[in-house]
Amino acid sequence: GAGVSQSPSNKVTEKGKDVELRCDPISGHTALYWYRQSLGQGLEFLIYFQGNSAPDKSGLPSDRFSAERTGGSVSTLTIQRTQQEDSAVYLCASSSPGLAGGGRQYFGPGTRLTVL
Amino acid sequence: GQQLNQSPQSMFIQEGEDVSMNCTSSSIFNTWLWYKQEPGEGPVLLIALYKAGELTSNGRLTAQFGITRKDSFLNISASIPSDVGIYFCAGQNYNNAGNMLTFGGGTRLMVKP
User: Fold this and answer.
1) Are A60 and A68 within 8 A, CB to CB?
2) CB of B4 within 8 A of CB of B65?
3) Nearest Cβ partner of A43 from B41, B48, B88?
4) How far apart are CA A11 and CA A1, in angstroms?
5) Is the pLDDT of residue A61 over 90?
6) CA B110 → CA B7, B11, B78, distances in Å?
7) Angle at CA B55, nearest 5°, toward B22 and B70?
8) Could you tell me the pLDDT band of residue B98, with boundaries at 50, 70 and 90?
9) What are phi and psi of A107, to 5 degrees?
10) Are the CB atoms for A23 and A105 separated by under 8 Å?
11) Which residues of A touch B104 (CB under 8 A)?
């Protein structure tokens, strides 16, 4: 059983360009989370998907950020018109649903985004 | 919103020493989790705690869920060089939206051989 995978592992882009980051959760995990981690900092919640429910977007920092999850599995985080302050590591995590998941989220290795 | 204060922010210790770090919250959590993150990797779950007062061990690691449900600590005994990394606490309150986690700011551990 593979863990959470993310691609690309590194992304360098120019200010103003759009980027897409991909997450493949653990098979069978219906909950998927995106976090942002700035250098030397903790994890900042961005967005949460649970099954077919409407996503919890309460952590998205601006309307330049959006995410979707197709078929209840793979998720894509899109950042439009990137800014230098968007530079960070973007982490994806997945978990089993509800109380059975016990709060245990399993993380991917992250995508390091650098905006020049 | 909920806030987690994690301390210390960093520790530089000698191999073989014991380590202790803790997290406190302004509000209660149903679950406490401890993660370790190494450079270039995502956080890896070390220990999960589900009941107030619970004390759980995982090898040289021991963690406790505080009685007030507002705090937790992690101890590492007889540290070794591979313990180096950043340790994060996380608190969880299950709600209709799911298993939302709030993370502490992390404790950076450095071990001198």
Assistant:
1) no
2) no
3) B88
4) 27
5) yes
6) 14, 6, 13
7) 45
8) low
9) -100, 150
10) no
11) 42
